[in-house]
Design goal:
The chain has 230 residues and is mainly alpha-helical. The chain has seven helices and three strands; from the N terminus they run ααβββααααα. The longest helix has 39 residues, at 141-179.
Length: 230
């Protein structure tokens, strides 16, 4: 059963990653009519939202774009920093969406920021607890199942909070690009929508995975069906 769960959740995650890369590559071939780059879009959206304390930087790696709320940095991969395609503009505007959320104190973003520390700890428990129990015998099956269900519950809650944060950032991105005339209606707008919608599925897949493993460890404990699973 565990192999079925592992292969099933892995397949969902791989499909989500493959889809976002495929859609991104498809809409990263033709430049937008405005000629704006990802950097231009970020600078303009931040300016129009009166955000002047966020640094714009170039990062490494494809689709490693992110907004760092701790240091107020908006990092774009080189392709999206200089790119003038619907894909590049969509990703750049999405990260601006996070900067706007931070500026307006969007509550789910702050909940996610507050949960980073405990989620990191929970991920360590998930990674090392089964090995510790297997090689030392210091953890009982039931005790291991309780700790694993708690750890997966934390990760699941973090992934659940992430969903509104990411979907709201994409909504803000679409509104900004269209409202400020940075992309043209039709194919350009459709490209941005498809890139951002495909990216959203990676977060949905992460939530589904954590939810399934949370139930896998929790249900036997609730139903009293044995000692639980490590």
């Amino acid at each position: 059963m565990i192999w079925i769960l592992f292969l099933g959740t892995m397949s969902v995650s791989l499909w989500a990653v493959w889809r976002v890369k495929a859609v991104y590559n498809h809409y990263n071939q033709v430049e937008v009519a405005s000629g704006l780059s990802g950097f231009d879009v970020v600078r303009e959206i931040l300016r129009k939202n009166a955000i002047d304390d966020v640094k714009i930087e170039i990062g490494e790696g494809l689709l490693g774009d992110h907004y760092d709320p701790i240091h107020k940095r908006l990092v774009l991969s080189e392709a999206n920093f200089y790119g003038c395609t619907p894909a590049a503009l969509g990703v750049a505007a999405h990260e601006c969406g996070h900067a706007i959320q931070h500026a307006v104190a969007y509550k789910p973003l702050h909940w996610r920021m507050a949960a980073v520390g405990i989620t990191t700890y929970a991920n360590h428990v998930i990674m090392f607890l089964p090995l510790l129990g297997l090689f030392t015998g210091l953890i009982t099956p039931r005790g291991g199942a309780i700790m694993m269900s708690i750890a997966w519950g934390v990760v699941m809650a973090f992934n659940l909070i992430t969903l509104p944060v990411e979907f709201d950032a994409s909504r803000r991105a679409k509104e900004a690009l269209g409202g400020f005339g940075m992309i043209a209606p039709g194919e350009e707008s459709e490209g941005v929508n498809k890139v951002l919608d495909a990216a959203a599925w990676t977060y949905v897949a992460a939530f589904i995975t954590s939810f399934v493993y949370f139930l896998w460890h929790l249900l036997p404990l609730l139903l009293g069906g044995g000692k639980g699973r490590e």
